[in-house]
Amino acid sequence: MINVAILGYGTVGSGVVEVLKTNQDSIDKRAGKKINVKYVLDLRDFEGDPVQKLITHNIEDILGDEDIKVIVEVMGGVEPAYTFVKRALLAGKSVVTSNKELVAKHGAELLKIARKNEINFLFEASVGGGIPIIRPLNKSLTADEITDIKGILNGTTNFILSKMVEEDLDFETVLKQAQEKGYAEKNPEADIEGHDACRKIAILSSLAFGMHVNYEEIYTEGITHITKEDIKYAKKLNCHIKLLAESKKIKNHVYAYVAPTMINEKHPLANVNGVFNAIYVNGNIIGDVMFYGSGAGKLPTASAVVADVVDAVKHLDRNIITFWSTKEMDLINIAEVSAKVFLRIAYNDEEKAKNKVEQILGIEKIVELDNVNGEFGIVSNEWTQGEIQEKITTLKQSESIRKVYNEIKWEY
Amino acid sequence: MINVAILGYGTVGSGVVEVLKTNQDSIDKRAGKKINVKYVLDLRDFEGDPVQKLITHNIEDILGDEDIKVIVEVMGGVEPAYTFVKRALLAGKSVVTSNKELVAKHGAELLKIARKNEINFLFEASVGGGIPIIRPLNKSLTADEITDIKGILNGTTNFILSKMVEEDLDFETVLKQAQEKGYAEKNPEADIEGHDACRKIAILSSLAFGMHVNYEEIYTEGITHITKEDIKYAKKLNCHIKLLAESKKIKNHVYAYVAPTMINEKHPLANVNGVFNAIYVNGNIIGDVMFYGSGAGKLPTASAVVADVVDAVKHLDRNIITFWSTKEMDLINIAEVSAKVFLRIAYNDEEKAKNKVEQILGIEKIVELDNVNGEFGIVSNEWTQGEIQEKITTLKQSESIRKVYNEIKWEY
Asked: N or C: which end of chain A has fewer CB within 10 A?
């Protein structure tokens, strides 16, 4: 029998207890040992709940108990999670976490401690909820050098964008509905401004490229400026707008960003809708692979946590090597990276405006909406993103152009 | 340094050598040891090729060499692969294979020998080419009880069906093109009759449900009867026709089949086109997840083989538990399983024919094509597949009906 402790009895923590109970037989069989939850750390008492007898308010009960071999950290936030996890690893206990803030900020250091102590620090649930992605990156794509990872990594924003398309609604209306249904937080900033996706792509990049990617250096843009009209333009261009997080290797350098992006409707990522997430990976041998599933939610996340617990139990005395050095990676400034961009141009003089745009940015595609007068949308030629900003500034000075706005990254 | 031997220097075998060379540094780093190919077994000499100095024609050179810790079997076919692999495992050498015939037929027995000797028998490349699916099933979905696996598991048939849709061509024309391009074999039976997909779903079912599924007992139907008109009907029904392989648990029983199936165009599997494959898995906790990638091809397959070699090297003295007992699973007879079905009805009397079909099978949807006179297509109510066959026989006896044909499984 292996004793485990769970730090935090919130949504994920209670999900973990539920999963261990629901599938106890098959889980114990796969782990090769019976998994027993000995403690649950929480400030609350949960009076009357079966979990009550496992509750402790004191982390020392857990850290000081030699019987505890695996600790599940599902409190969220950097502190006190970081202190607890670090102490647990230093005490020779393996740790499983779903905490993306913790992993993005301190993953490299915590992995190093685990490696030194021949135990494990596992975090499958920190990215993509239930989607198996961390383990495949570590264990399945080992013959490849990863060249590109791009994904829809946030369920809330994908739900909002999908609903805007399906029901022809504007951002604010859908956000309100999502909040009412519990798909978006009361304070939705972390999701809608892209911060959540940013931490996740930082974790994936660090794993794929083997060096620490500082999430604070990743260019991050949310979806709050996306309008109904943008979505109509996208449709006319046979595209879907998705909040994409990408990390790509060009020669020996990596760039990373989070930004709404127009993707061709035939691309597998374009058809990932609702709260589903997906991660598209390119390796230099395997080509393209994609992993798809529920990006969040109590049970999918708990499933990933428990799968990590099983792996931790199967490797109690052996570190599962993970390449993520503490050395920090220099990301390329996004301004130096080439891209095409979708732009809306409101004009004073249509013909002159079109000529001007063609002359400055180049026009790969041009599109107009039936119900929107006085403007057109274009897809530009490819320039570095620094050049694009300069060219937009130039366009804005043209008399024929009233407004240049709502630029959206164009992928295909 | 770890010495490995490769049995067979065909497409996959030469791919493995190429991958090990291309990404040698990162592969050795992930394996924790340098991987050295010491022998390649082949009947040919490959004179002038750098591989020539590694070639042996004698399996005893390999089996008798204590230096060899891992053997890669990429010969294909059951014999002599089975004899070689079994002897290798009995001699304490781990084996990695891409051979789906071997795994489908003897997987349970070979896994048992590996388990007994604390070595490994790995076969990620036997299903889905480069797509990581065997390892995720074994290692990532361990918290779940799998309830359903369905997939597009054959690249050739998916290429043919995709091309028939895109270019409005008939089966024979596209098959010929596929043969010219090397996407289909000269003797394409194993692909187009569904046998290849059948072996792969047998392997996945055995792993997911932990008992040996005999591929000979899986209902298997190919795509040779699918016509241009069927595809037009599907389009009108907002569907795509895919060769689906499915294995599903109902209560404590499992049924499995391979058959062309109409899938709603919004389902992620519907948008898997060309030579790509995908596997959709439902677990009782995680919900739906999907794995997508190149289902075949020299390099993707070699990538999966080499990833297994890395895993074998990392676990030289420890069996990675795989649940696939030698006990044979009783599959439910497909005739007892409920389904809806698409059918084409050529009539002598339109109104009477429609009434008859409504009365016997029930009509969920009805659809007619602009350019096809004298017939309509329907989606039936749900019946067991045995009942459906009986009802079709009854319909065929009706005077108002000239022909009932091209039934296709209806999924959504």
From this structure: N
